[in-house]
Design brief:
With 560 residues, the protein is of the alpha/beta class. 47% of the residues lie in helices and 23% in strands. It is built from 21 helices and 20 strands. The structure holds ligand C2E and magnesium ion (2 copies). The site of one magnesium ion has 4 residues, from strand 17.
């Protein structure tokens, strides 16, 4: 009788409240459910709940948590709360349960009243509020608050891992005029589209935000190399080449960019933004449409980078390149085994810059494919000429950089050149570095496989300067290893280098590959290498990189 009274009383209260109530015993078994008029909130009819255990509805972790909270409510006799999420019909729903100790006993067990409130709408509103508080309404980019948060995290992370990141302060040139000459609405659309272009050119790990008006911030993590930053600036410049089409107006814009590096230029977000802002201000003062670094040292380096890049572009247009050829010889019988093609740029403004730096910049600015096509075409037509002179018992080695090897058209281009010059694929040997192998690109692997199938061979260049991973050597089934010059140059003086080189030679030979020593410059080095059992040598002691005409003479000598 008593039970019926409290039940009815409770039911009338519960029906007026948005909550569900359950009577649950100390073990987590549902004794009763009070849900008058709210059946749709239960997801299950009342009868299917009574007598069931919390584990029937929740996963193990949540059930455990629930039982613990019930026990705590009973032992402390104080109301407890628990918040939890459930995946209901693939929608995340949020709940808050208040667990209240009661004096009711069921089958000799203590009970609690669990009052559950659906918090989904509140939670969604909270998330929405947080989003609105941290994002810019116009562009949907992170706003000042969130950017500060990200930047402080990034600075702390860079300090911890001893890495370097950068902050780009980007300001649209003459934005006020755009607002005045067109309309504020046009200005807003431009900002929105500018934000989109900015987002498109960045990597997933980069953070783009809007500070205010026409001021945008870009946080780049891990910019160890100056070129990492300049590469993004180059992309932004390219992205802005195309005018913005707004209400049938073609609007062209330029930007001024100030760059500060962290942690060196600022210990916290405030300082760093100030430094980048100051650098941006200097760009404005000096005529806009450019960028500069807060630190002078970087500014000089970056001007050099763009100068080289522009000159390379011109050299490609003018076909202003040539190739030198450096032979490799067998230590067994002095025979000529390979001839390595080494690119030279003839444009006198950059002809003194090491070709490896030019290649690096060409890679960063996507000019490498034009250069690659030149080298392959030139080498193949050269091979054809030498071949007509003497059937080649040697190979022609061509260096392939990281992006060249990942080029999806590489095999097709090589096959075309081989056919055009009527030469056999087996004469080509490609030199790649260990880091290129490790990049793990799908196209790189596929290209290696296909070229090997055609009959080309592969060697690892500059071995010892990268990860020297034995598993790579095995996995990629390579033909030849070239030990880097840095180990050869100190062979006479350094006991350590002797140990490394002799062990490397023994190991490579064990794996059934040919071993070449790069950069051999004197007789002593040759004697040591011979004693270690090295197969082949390359270096100034035998021949400098030669003009094609000089190679012709060499071939005729070796023919005799
Ligand atoms: P690499 O493939 O390791 O080429 C060997 C480099 O060492 C060449 O420098 C060569 O001139 C130099 N060398 C050879 N013997 C000696 C020696 O006894 N002593 C000294 N001090 N140096 C020696 P180079 O021509 O400046 O090339 C540098 C790097 O640029 C090459 O290293 C290669 O990685 C890259 N490279 C050159 N041509 C091409 C190309 O056509 N395509 C690609 N992707 N990379 C290239
Ligand atoms: Mg090489
Ligand atoms: Mg090398």
């Amino acid at each position: 009788m008593k039970t019926n009274t409290y039940k009815k009383y409770l039911e009338s209260i519960v029906s007026a409240m948005p909550d569900l109530m359950f009577l649950v015993d100390e073990e987590g078994t549902y004794i009763d459910v009070f849900s008058s008029g709210k059946e749709e909130l239960l997801y299950k009819p009342k009868e299917e709940i009574i007598g069931k255990h919390v584990t029937d509805f929740f996963n193990d972790a949540l059930s455990e948590k629930f039982v613990a909270v019930i026990n705590k409510a009973i032992s402390s006799q104080i109301l407890q709360r628990i918040e939890y999420e459930l995946d209901i019909s693939s929608r995340q729903e949020y709940f808050e349960a208040r667990v209240m100790p009661t004096h009711i006993k069921e089958n000799g067990k203590q009970t609690v009243m669990v009052i559950v409130r659906d918090m989904t709408d509140i939670q969604h509103n909270k998330t929405k509020m947080h989003y609105l508080a941290t994002h810019d309404a116009l562009t949907t980019l992170p706003n000042r608050t969130l950017i500060f948060e990200h930047l402080n995290h990034a600075i702390a992370a860079a300090k911890r891992s001893a890495t370097r990141g950068s902050l780009l302060f980007i300001d649209i040139d003459g934005f006020k005029d755009i607002n005045d000459n067109y309309s504020h609405k046009t200005g807003d659309t431009l900002l929105k589209e500018f934000a989109q272009r900015l987002t498109q050119i960045t990597r997933e790990s980069d953070i783009v935000g809007r500070l205010s008006g026409d001021e945008f911030l870009l946080i780049l993590e891990n910019t160890e190399e100056m070129d990492d930053i300049l590469n993004i600036i180059e992309k932004l410049k390219t992205a802005l080449l195309e005018p913005f089409m707004i209400n049938e107006n073609h609007i062209e814009i330029t930007v001024s960019i100030g760059i500060a590096c962290y942690p060196s230029d600022g210990d916290n977000a405030d300082q760093l933004i100030h430094a980048a802002d100051q650098a941006m201000y200097n760009v404005k003062k000096n005529g806009k449409n450019s960028y500069t670094f807060y630190s002078k040292e970087f500014s000089i380096l970056s001007h050099e980078y763009f100068f080289i890049q522009n000159t390379l572009r011109k050299a490609i247009r003018d076909n202003d390149f040539s190739i030198l050829y450096q032979p490799e010889f067998s230590l067994k019988d002095n025979s000529l085994t390979s001839i390595e093609a080494l690119l030279r740029c003839n444009n006198e403004d950059i002809s003194d810059i090491p070709i490896s730096r030019l290649i690096h910049i060409a890679e960063e600015s996507n000019l490498i494919h034009n250069i690659s096509r030149y080298v392959l075409e030139k080498c193949c037509s050269q091979i054809k000429q030498w071949q007509d002179l003497t059937p080649p018992p040697f190979k022609i080695a061509i260096n392939l950089s990281r992006k060249e090897l990942s080029d999806k058209d590489l095999v097709e281009v090589i096959e075309k050149n081989l056919t055009a010059c009527n030469i056999d694929a087996s004469i080509l040997e490609f030199e790649i570095t260990e880091s290129t192998l490790l990049q793990n690109s799908h196209f790189a692997k596929q290209n290696i496989d296909q070229l090997r199938k055609l009959g080309c061979s592969f060697s690892i260049d500059d071995y010892g300067t990268g990860f020297s991973s034995l598993s790579n050597l095995r996995e990629f089934n390579l033909d030849k290893i070239k030990i880097d010059r840095s180990f050869i140059s100190d062979l006479e003086e350094s006991e350590n280098d002797r140990i490394i080189v002799s062990a490397t030679i023994a190991m490579i030979k064990q794996l059934g590959m040919t071993v070449v020593a790069e950069g051999v410059e004197n007789k002593t080095q040759e004697t040591i290498l011979k004693a270690f059992g090295c197969d082949e040598v390359q270096g100034y002691y035998y021949a400098y990189p030669l003009e094609a005409e000089e190679v012709k003479k060499l071939l005729l000598e070796h023919k005799e």
